[in-house]
Fold this protein.
Amino acid sequence: MRLSNAALASLAARATSEVVVPAYDRTSLAPGIVHLGLGAFHRAHQAVYTEHTLRAGDHRWGIVGVSLRRADTSEALTPQDHLYAVDVRDGTAESFQVIGALIASLVAPQSPAGVLHAMTDPCCHIVSLTITEKGYCRSPASGALQFDHPDIAHDLREAAAPRSAIGFVVRALALRRAAGLGPFTVLSCDNLPSNGDTMRALTLAFARQTDPVLADWIEREGAFPNTMVDRIVPLTTEADRARVAKQLGADDAWPVMTEPFSQWVIEDRFAGPRPAWERAGATLVGDARPYEQAKLRMLNGAHSALAYLGSLIGYDTVDQAISAPAVLNFVECMLRDEVEPTLSLPALASYRAELFTRFRNTALDHRLQQIATDGSQKLPQRWLESVRANLKRGAPTERLAFALAGWIAYLSGHDETGRTYAIADPLAARLTEVVRATLHSDAVDAVRTLFEIESIFGCDLRAHPRFVAQVARHLAAIRAQGIVKAMDGLYRLRLCA
Ligand code: CS2
């Protein structure tokens, strides 16, 4: 039996405290949210919070999910009436929740007009986004909109059939204004610093280019709250599908896997109504940026270090890498000595301890290669902002420099056991070319050449000879001795107790 509305009654009969299914009337849901970027993260995070408000009786918040590129999620979920299971796992317990909040899915390249139609529906009050870092078509270092990005250039020419999230948002806001409707709230849920402010600046830059009056209206009436989102969501495997089918008693073509932990901090400034997400555990605040910064630099910063250093050693998953004492110690010292001092939130030591407990979750099978993707888009906010803060204060940067050297070594495309892997990154061609061309030259040359890539490193970091020399020294050590021995060298520097 396939998961579907028709199957819900028999699933409800089997429901337990570990298997929860929607009991409300799904036909009464209004399309209050359009979500751009219908990936596993959204389905395991924001959709779960929204499900809570639907179960509590506020039926204004059905979600229309939009895939901006691929049709696979929509094709998997449409035959099952967009129902899917969230499988929450740690080493000791497992629970399943069938989510009913997703009411439709659209594939933007197949129907840009359909997407714009959903975004201009008077019921739609929120357009949320999980489009990943590269979906913002911005320079990761400066944050400026890349007007020469193919999708942005296209959307400036063909406004009625956009391709990028920014093109869709600006066009839909123009249509709403023309129809006498207010703007929707744009809710970025990506791992970017000041994600709402960032999206606002990009939206305004695009709108100014085409219609300054519209840009003024967005500036006046629009709302782009910053958010911090956190839940670890690994890729779904065939084994996961089989387990979910057995537990649920119905086949789900694309369930999502996740951990028990979930956090969502949202700035409470919306252009119109919003779901009472706080009743589902979200934290509504005046300023989400300190939370965002701490999460990006600590959780995501540690993740990227584990991804590159762990992959090079030959590990496959986060829990394997964090179980290696040398790796754990490295990441712990990096966070404690070089990241936490750059942050303003209190109680970071206990936050760090909680992160390591989450990373040790053996039931998640969270692949390092999944995290290793798109380093050029991720590292500026995950590592380089901490580096800059430390350089400014004359504070240590040794471990962040080591992690960066690890990334450069990772770009060679093979680990220390000889296994090869592909570099998945929008700048892959340029990065691998630099690394290949400088492989046999002095490590300082390799680092200097890489630091010339301004969209990642800006133009300030290459002007710090001490930092360049640090990265180069660690890169030379990693190349000569391997990660673990090179890490040992760090102890001789007496950096860590
Ligand atoms: C990860 C994040 O893939 C990655 O880059 O660091 O997706 C991470 O799992 C989430 O941000 C956790 O909230």
Remarks:
- Residues 30 and 60 are 5 Å apart (CA to CA).
- Residues 289-313 form the longest helix (25 residues).
